[in-house]
Design brief:
The protein has 93 residues and is α+β, with helices and mostly antiparallel strands. 59% of the residues lie in helices and 24% in strands. Strand 1 and strand 2 form a beta hairpin. It is elongated, with a radius of gyration of 22 Å.
Length: 93
Amino acid sequence: MAKKLNSLRWIMVVGGIAFLGILIYLSMRQAQQEYEVCMAFKGGTHCAKASGPTRDAAVRSAQEIDCQMLATGRDEAMVCLSQGPTTVRSTGQ
């Protein structure tokens, strides 16, 4: 009975380590693309960097950061986001 408990503990430890390794791997793999995006809105300009699994996701995330800094309120933020970025630059990772 004690041998079964001991081997069950080892299986749980190895399983836990494998699970953590998979989580770390997937987390690092997800942020493969990094871009710096600049937005101009209502006379102001802001540039932000963001990462994402794809170019579009990274650029959209950076646009959202920029528009949060440039716009006042949700309506303005949506108008800001509907405009294209002034510059998009890959920062490589």
